[in-house]
């Protein structure tokens, strides 16, 4: 199982997701361009000393990423048709999260094999992308017996 971030905007969220992935033993795919300058300082500040343990692959763009995906792409989106409690995950799924400011473009949404939303109270707009990653990854690892 992997986490993938499509053109992330906020270095702190990327660092938090990289720390999550390092602690739980899943890889991270970063799909560029990113909305911030990639650098050790920003990542260290956000991910602390866990970043050396994270398996991170950077992709030049969506096409480069999509060309190498071997499992299903599971898009986590407020526009997802499947509620997280009813979603069924597989061990080789790639959990894809969009940019904090814009989500993912229509062609990325269309390419997803499964579109999942985290249920929220009426009137709530969205969760932070790192929180969404943690909630969905936790459920996916539970279902696939993938906890370290």
Search tags:
148 residues; alpha/beta; Alpha/beta knot; 34% helix; 19% strand; globular
CATH domain topology: Alpha/beta knot
CATH classification class: Alpha Beta
Uncertain segments are none
Structural class: alpha/beta
Number of strands: 7
Listing every helix as H and every strand as E from the N terminus to the C terminus, the arrangement reads EHEHEHEEEHEH
In order across it, which strands form the biggest sheet?
3-2-1-6-4-7-5
Q: Looking at the structure, what is the overall shape?
A: globular
How would you characterize this protein structure?
With 148 residues, this protein is an alpha/beta fold. It has a single domain (2-144), classed as SPOUT methyltransferase, trefoil knot domain (Alpha/beta knot), CATH 3.40.1280. The protein is built from five helices and seven strands; from the N terminus they run βαβαβαβββαβα. It has a seven-stranded parallel beta sheet with strand order 3-2-1-6-4-7-5. The two termini are 12 Å apart.
Write the layout of secondary structure elements.
Elements: E1 2-6, H1 11-24, E2 27-31, H2 40-47, E3 56-59, H3 62-68, E4 73-76, E5 82-83, E6 94-97, H4 106-111, E7 114-117, H5 129-144
Parallel strand pairs: 1-2, 1-6, 2-3, 4-6, 4-7, 5-7
Helix pairs in contact: 1-2, 1-5
Summed up:
This protein is of the alpha/beta class and about 150 residues long.
């Amino acid at each position: 199982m992997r986490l993938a971030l499509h053109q992330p905007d906020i270095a702190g969220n990327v660092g938090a997701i990289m720390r999550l992935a390092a602690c739980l033993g899943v890889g991270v795919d970063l799909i560029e361009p990113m909305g911030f300058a990639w650098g050790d300082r920003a990542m260290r500040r956000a991910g602390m000393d866990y970043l050396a343990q994270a398996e991170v692959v950077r992709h030049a763009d969506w096409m480069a990423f999509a060309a190498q995906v071997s499992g299903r792409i599971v898009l986590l989106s407020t526009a997802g048709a499947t509620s997280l409690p009813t979603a069924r995950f597989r061990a080789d799924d790639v959990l894809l999260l969009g940019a904090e400011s814009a989500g993912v473009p229509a062609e990325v949404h269309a390419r997803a094999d499964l579109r999942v939303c985290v249920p929220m109270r009426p009137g709530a707009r969205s969760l932070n992308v790192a929180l969404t990653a943690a909630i969905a990854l936790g459920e996916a690892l539970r279902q696939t017996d993938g906890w370290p």
